């Protein structure tokens, strides 16, 4: 951490600030120039709240050097984490393939899609039971009934369940019924929910918020990890920019960035990223090529009549062809599906 | 709502889509040109989920014409809403002045600030008890103890309490202890929390999410209103853009936009918008001039030692001068503080 | 300037980097911690290209401390600059009022608008002769004929002319015919044009680019100033964000930011900022309240038939009322129109 | 094009607007509902300036249906364009590989890099002679001397030259000396320059502006094409978002979007997109997988001492390995390098 002081700060004030900072348990090295007074903080600064230093009126600004996250930081955990979900691994050489409908609609629907995507090579089943919708008047999911239907599809296919949680009230139920608990983009900084999930040992699929920086995203992972749960899979699903042709802008450079900064696995959601089914194919290919550890893709047997997000869902047959082509790209970069 | 079909869509397909849409209870008027087939939907489209139409592969895109919010919509409620909080009105000619520290730190701190800002003209006291912090290692607020201290400050000054809720678990407690329940920017689309708040009749201060469009923000208000609680005050607090000199970019044009689209009152938070205490003064003046119904400002008796956000807090004496100057601007536009 | 080195950089490599940097004429002070090696650069760093330092593979990152602009920097020119245009001052206590149509259409149109806005209190006439349009098929302005008509309007009213330049070929003509040469948002980083304008001594109205940071904007001013022309007026006209309700998002906090960082005057364009005529009034009021040195507003006698941007133009009578109200706000903050 | 009228617009006003629009050569089909009055415009709307319609105070908004570009539009040119540069094709099955330093520094430097990248498989040489720099104090390129050195490198290697133009004054020289004229991101809407380039028949590499929408980018291509020059290659190089870890956010979804909307080839610049040399490899792989028609990559023999952008340049040996790996991915999607 580096503290820049205002020009004209007196030696006495520098000493006061230095004392105040050193009380927080770090050492201060000053660099004093004519147009520049900086204090270099040496030691563990991860628990120092920079706003407490910036509040001093002699402080021009405070700059991070070390990343503010610890448990998620690759510096202290150089090996990539491999998350084990009932024997299915996320983060290793084999790429995780998560597929299924936007929302669970009926037993027949979810079971038939589960069977189809399994045949194509998927090893996880996604399906929304609780749906975060912008409008209170839109379909909100089958809720607990949806969870029951997911369990039936799991019974038939063996595919572990990935589904989104919206309320801390439901954590116990999700821990019992679900294999991977998804935290949606809009809840990425629902810190209360993150803390509660930190007390479980379930795998958490943490989606990046629509306008979250990579650092904030890792800090949200840190919230869960600080609570004791280190089973986290990150998921990039598009960020909000000025471009309106696509619903969001998929930030694929987040993949190498996360690999550099953290040991946690990262997967890509090409369906939500653009909101257009015909873009799923090229974006999925790019995601594999750039080194993503998995893909979560919306697949529906009848997109035109889907209860939500049919415009971004692909049919099982399209998914099947896509996986075949993805295998070639995975092989080209030395991985497998 | 307008549905654009792909070129080459056959008459039979047009008929099928038309039938499917008319089953949702609206009438379809087609406009058919050589390079253009559009369907104009006439009737109440607010409950139609556009993704269900977009999912049809012959549909190029779906465009909203009418706003998707009803209860928050000025079209159906032309008079501006005035929210009554224990006799203090938000939304009328008199401008609401909310002030207080980022977080409650001690009885002495909160009481003394409350007394100071009251003398200067504030009519609401803000103070965080539960703090949403990016880092799990940062000070998270005094929590329930903070609520108790706020109540003591209210006892002494009579100022109604404005404070942020983070968990649905705390709603009963907040309903009892608090006058205005704040929903923070990061929870603007925590739909589960919004639904629960819709069941109360407390005034809700709904902050705009960091990357929320004005429409999405009003849809979040609609969530609360759809549950039965129409006591909502909107709060613009800066949006996230590429600019890094200020922490966020205050979108003051949201004030006239909200006044046009909705009957709900809107206030401005100049402290969070920029993260710089010396910008509070000019931004507060601009907010009054543009027609905001109130200001929420961070005031601390000792910013340099504040437990959070001291860098954006002003001292009581600075607040006092500011209010004096704001009164002149309010008068210039025919309002009062 | 601060240089952060990678962990594990050897002393020998630190010495090499230090030598290389000191050859650029600054002194290097090292701060060496266990998880942190930083080099504090003391001296004139404004001419050091940070990419040349970042290119060293041991360098983690380079951070600016001092602003990279010199001539535009308030630190070296504490008094605000007042720009004199034929006796009309921009930057002093009196607020500059620039008004006129998006584009010059006919002698009658430009002259009559000029006469109207002058009566209302405008002291500069704007009017586009060369129009930067997104589409090659849209009206591109009357070009040289437009300049002639502006001169006629000036003859009749005495109002100095503000108009946009698009090509370096036209500089001589503009220097002769025009009082303030406008550089549009899309040309803010047309460095070649900026360099040529730096050789003149005309007042330059430099609009902020749609996605330009405040620092980049000041660096564009620095381009002109480095060439010898210090007569620059900055103009904020809205930046590009995710919000689509307004055409752009007016960044009013740029006003106090510029006042802090630079001595150059700054004015606001509320017409282009939102693209909506009914938002001009509230945004103009906010601009005066926040301390802008002027306003540039689109006024047209027949907006419904304007050849461009009629949707954001106000009528002369509306402008007249607006100026009357703006005078009250100006007075409230101790300035005058 | 669709025109939405305000509620309460009278039949007489509807008729007036209809007449005014039909005079522009299109037919108007009205759809009149209780809460909705829309006019569907049928015919060639590409030459209608929507602001001229929006200026009518009864108009709520105007929405595009057909894209505003004609010559760049895939609808009227279903086959993808293949641009021929001295026998080297851009846009076909073979992927164009453009490589070279950020700026030309010396004969030895440019020639040696050209020879190296040619051996690795590059078929075009890039190198900046005129450099657009944010700071007027940064190295601005060798200018005309740089062009001469590029010609020498071409003589030795046969690689066609790709280099950036900054001023319309230099067009004749570039037409003579250069094979592909690059228009940089900051000049994407320098319409004057685009018009001049439209009069040549050189291949133009048109970079996307930092905050340009895909539609605006295609409209800039349309400017050149409207002038008669249809030899255009688009280049995505990262857009500006709130994320600061990377210099820009590479928008790879622009590749399938452009392929859908236009027949023009599109290439990717992974070097400028992130500003980090170690991200070039994964982003280049993703670009090939997603279907880009080429890559423009910064290669320098001594990045640590490069005169600009060394931090994003890779060494010839790294480039050589990268091309080898890219060939595998190209093969996996049925293309070749």
Description:
Chains A, B, C, D: This is 3-deoxy-7-phosphoheptulonate synthase. Chains A, B, C, D: It is an enzyme of class 2 (transferase). Chains A, B, C, D: One of its GO terms (molecular function) is 3-deoxy-7-phosphoheptulonate synthase activity. Chains A, B, C, D: Pfam families: DAHP_snth_FXD, DAHP_synth_1. Four copies of one chain form a homotetramer. Chain A is α/β, with parallel strands linked by helices. Chain A has two domains: 2-63, Phospho-2-dehydro-3-deoxyheptonate aldolase, domain 1 (Alpha-Beta Plaits); 74-332, Aldolase class I (TIM Barrel, Alpha-Beta Barrel). Helices cover 34% and strands 18% of the residues of chain A. An eight-stranded parallel beta sheet of chain A has the order 13-12-11-10-9-8-7-14. Chain A has a four-stranded antiparallel beta sheet with strand order 2-3-1-4. Chains A and B meet through helix 2, helix 6 and helix 7 of A and helix 2, helix 6 and helix 7 of B.
- Write down how many β-strands of chain A occur, each being a DSSP E stretch of 2 or more residues: 14
| DSSP helical segment count of chain A | 11
> Can you identify the CATH class of the largest domain in chain A?
Alpha Beta
Query: Considering the protein shown, what is the CATH homologous superfamily of the largest domain in chain A?
Result: Aldolase class I
Q: Order of helices and strands of chain A, N to C?
A: EHEEHEEEEHEHEHEHEHEHEHHEH
């Amino acid at each position: 951490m580096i503290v820049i002081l205002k020009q004209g700060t007196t030696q006495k004030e520098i000493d006061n600030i230095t004392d105040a900072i050193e009380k927080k348990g770090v050492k201060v090295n000053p660099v004093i120039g004519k147009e520049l007074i900086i204090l270099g903080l040496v030691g563990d600064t991860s628990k120092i709240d920079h706003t407490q230093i910036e509040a001093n009126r002699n402080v021009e600004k405070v700059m991070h050097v070390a990343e503010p996250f610890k448990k998620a930081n690759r510096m202290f955990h150089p090996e990539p984490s491999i998350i084990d979900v009932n024997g299915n691994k996320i983060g290793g050489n084999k790429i995780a393939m998560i597929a299924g409908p936007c929302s669970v609609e009926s037993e027949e629907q979810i079971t038939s899609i589960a069977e189809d995507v399994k045949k194509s090579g998927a090893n996880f089943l996604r399906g929304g039971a609780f749906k975060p919708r912008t409008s209170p008047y839109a379909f909100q999911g089958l809720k607990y009934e949806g969870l029951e239907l997911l369990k039936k599809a799991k019974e038939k296919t063996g595919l572990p369940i990935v589904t989104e949680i919206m309320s801390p009230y439901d954590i116990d139920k999700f821990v019992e019924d679900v294999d991977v608990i998804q935290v949606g983009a809009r809840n990425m900084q629902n810190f209360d929910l993150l803390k509660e999930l930190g007390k479980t040992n379930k795998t958490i699929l943490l989606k990046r918020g629509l306008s979250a920086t990579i650092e904030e995203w890792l800090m949200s992972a840190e919230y869960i990890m600080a609570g004791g749960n280190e089973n986290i899979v990150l998921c990039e699903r598009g960020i909000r920019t000025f471009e309106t042709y696509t619903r969001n802008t998929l930030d694929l450079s987040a993949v190498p960035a996360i690999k550099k900064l953290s040991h946690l696995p990262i997967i890509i959601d090409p369906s939500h990223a653009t909101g257009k089914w015909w873009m799923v194919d090229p974006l999925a290919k790019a995601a594999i090529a750039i080194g993503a550890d998995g893909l979560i893709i919306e697949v529906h047997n009848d997109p035109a009549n889907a209860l939500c997000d049919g415009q971004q869902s692909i049919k099982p047959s399209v998914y099947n062809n896509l996986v075949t082509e993805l295998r070639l790209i995975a092989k080209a970069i030395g991985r497998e599906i």
